[in-house]
Amino acid sequence: MKILDGGVTSPKGFLAAGISAGIKNENKKDMAMIYSEKPCESAGTFTTNIVQAAPVKWDKERVYSKEKAQVVVINSGIANACTGEKGFHYCRQTALKASEVLQVKEGSVLVASTGVIGKQLPMDCLAKGIELLVPELKDSIEGGNNAAQAIMTTDTCPKEIAVEFEIGGKTVTIGGMCKGSGMIHPNMCTMLAFVTTDLAICKELLQEALSEVVKDTYNMVSVDGDTSTNDTVLLLANGLAGNQIIKEKNEDYNLFLEALNYINTILAKKIAGDGEGATALFEVKVVNAQTKEQAVTLSKSIVTSSLTKAAIYGHDANWGRILCAMGYAGVTFEPEKVDLFFESKAGRIKIIENGVATDYSEEEATRILSEEEVSAIADIKMGAAAATAWGCDLTYDYVKINADYRS
Question: Which positions are catalytic residues (predicted)?
Fold first, then answer.
């Protein structure tokens, strides 16, 4: 597997663009489009929040039907959530406008929105934006990057990744982009992710692969404990790589699954590391658990602990907070057997052994915890299962950002 520069335009036949359509007051890029030269098989996973934005409902209808997808229209600034029948009608209007301009089927247009909840979309801006986006569509790195910029809200940087690998002697490429910084919590977050591939694969296996990968990637991310109304991951496959179509779980499928997992792991970590106000990516690994479910529950409990996140911000090896978070996670383990390590590119240090503090150096621990990426590894000595969760530290700026988000 080779890592590439680029994102959603890296696979054959995909173009993208991002422009300013006037939705945001700051004259920033706020509309993006992804277009495939050939209709695609599509797959998707969506928010578990009972309150679901209109675009989520629209995309579910499209993705879970047999109709192929060809276009994704995305806006930032306004979430089109809690907008009633009018909001859903605006999704249809957006799809209709895109279908007219691009000469594709209305049902092949997917939509996504992110931003402030409760506001109605300015459809004059959306319609004009679609007209402006189409001539800007490019199959270049620039086209993908413009789209990645346009879907940002409180993100501090665009988030992209692409890889290529071989299946049956054919070069297959997967590219992706995402946005997410706040209102981020497992089982998906205020996050949008768009993944494209030129692989030929049947729709059923495409959906199964995405659903499987999401469990260990986006569903293991938490910034602030709030699950959004708009979470969407869309995966499009146009088949232009020319491989023999994958219709069963064989070696080719496993190669694709491995690459897809890598793409979405990187995107999930980019979201966690760019959490609102964050200064560090906080990774939590629970190893030697009795079951995968136990490891998942414990790692999520640690990574979502506000006190632990605050300690990471302060570069403070306050391991008691981690054991406490494990203790209220709702699964059984033996605290007297737990070993805990902190790790970063500055080194690795054992903080507790068999539930008791080691004679560690506070200065060394602080040095390790002062890096931009920090890991806590909890060995619970009960089996061979493991899980990894990602989050970030909790800073003063998180409150500042969310106190005036609408202003």
Answer: 190
